[in-house]
């Protein structure tokens, strides 16, 4: 039996490409996550039930306010509620990075607040915040991290910051952005 590196338990296996997804690919993803004991699988909300069926013991995450961080409150809340009802135990929400860049802190964190409110009675649901680090000046990325972490002091809810969606044409995760987030 091979030894698994300890960091594998912190990895999300992700499938967020609707043009390449199928029931078979989601099943394979879930089986791989189960075999490797990864943190979770992350899929679009319409694939949650398939992922849970294929790997009932794995955690399933989904994305909301994705990918550009500018959905309406009603859309974010409805998508969050539907995802949790379908079996998601982690919600990866894109904060409004455009508002942050424009200096509107309240609007920047609003999508995270909407998700937190939508899952407030679901103690098993955790929230990850996608910062879209490639859209944020490197000199202000740490400030963005600190803002999110200070605004949401319940580490059981907002417990993870993520670099990017990989969907908006910005540079995705870099060593520099990941290091900044880790040091926050």
TrEMBL record:
Pfam families recorded: DeoC
Xref: InterPro entries: Aldolase_TIM, DeoC, DeoC/FbaB/LacD_aldolase
Catalytic activity: 2-deoxy-D-ribose 5-phosphate = D-glyceraldehyde 3-phosphate + acetaldehyde
Example GO molecular function: deoxyribose-phosphate aldolase activity
Enzyme class: lyase
GO BP term, pick one: carbohydrate catabolic process
Pathway info: Carbohydrate degradation; 2-deoxy-D-ribose 1-phosphate degradation; D-glyceraldehyde 3-phosphate and acetaldehyde from 2-deoxy-alpha-D-ribose 1-phosphate: step 2/2
Entry's Gene Ontology cellular component terms: cytoplasm
Keyword annotations: Lyase, Schiff base
SUPFAM superfamilies named in the record: Aldolase
Enzyme nomenclature, EC number: 4.1.2.4
Membership in a protein family: Belongs to the DeoC/FbaB aldolase family. DeoC type 2 subfamily.
Protein name: deoxyribose-phosphate aldolase
Originating organism: Rhizoclosmatium globosum
Organism phylogeny: Eukaryota, Fungi, Fungi incertae sedis, Chytridiomycota, Chytridiomycota incertae sedis
